[in-house]
Amino acid sequence: MKNGTDSFVSLGHWPSAGSFGVNTDILATNPINLSVVIGVLIFFGKGVLTDLLDNRKQKILNTIRNSEELRGGAVEQLEKARARLRKVEIEAEQFRVNGYSEIEREKLNLINSTYKTLEQLENYKNETIQFEQQKAINQVRQRVFQQALQGALGTLNSCLNSELHLRTISANIGMLGAMKEIID
């Protein structure tokens, strides 16, 4: 085994002129290998990488364009919504103003109606008072007239004799007959 290990270790000491071998010096071989791999990748992968980047760029541009279109549509819808909101606010204000004016108008109508009703009630009250006063005055007049008539009859009955009494009755009947003819 010693010969196999020696032969492997001795490979690192081979002269590089005109021969092929494996370099076991890790620090010397890594930068070279990396340079070769990167060079191969750049040479062969350049087209693929450029295509991937172009496709990605187009997707990003399309997304931005779509986003701009969507934003434009959203702005347009927002403006429409704002216009509708302004219109609704104006209508609401008109309803509020009209509602207040309608309420005021109804309030004034109710107040006027109440005043008219109170005025009518006052008139009815006054008419009732006048009627009752007239009724009371008529009753008093009737009683006074009855008492005066009774007093006069009492005085006449005590003062009159039967002949004077008959003449007075005849005169009164004559006056009533004349009054009847005038009325007819």
List the helices and strands and how they pair.
Blueprint: H1 2-11, H2 26-159, H3 162-183
Tell me about this structure:
By secondary structure, the protein is mainly alpha-helical. It has one domain. Helices cover 90% and strands 0% of the residues. The protein contains three helices and no strands. It is rod-shaped, with a radius of gyration of 68 Å. The termini are far apart.
Oligomer: single chain
Question: Uncertain regions: pLDDT < 50 for 5+ in a row?
Answer: 1-15
- Beta-strand proportion: under 5%
In total, the number of strands is 0
Share of helical residues? over 70%
Tags for this model:
proton-transporting ATP synthase activity, rotational mechanism; CF(0); coiled coil; single chain; 184 residues; 3 helices; ATP synthesis; 90% helix; rod-shaped; mainly alpha; ATP synthase subunit b, chloroplastic
Give a short summary of the structure.
With 184 residues, the protein is mainly alpha-helical. The chain has one domain.
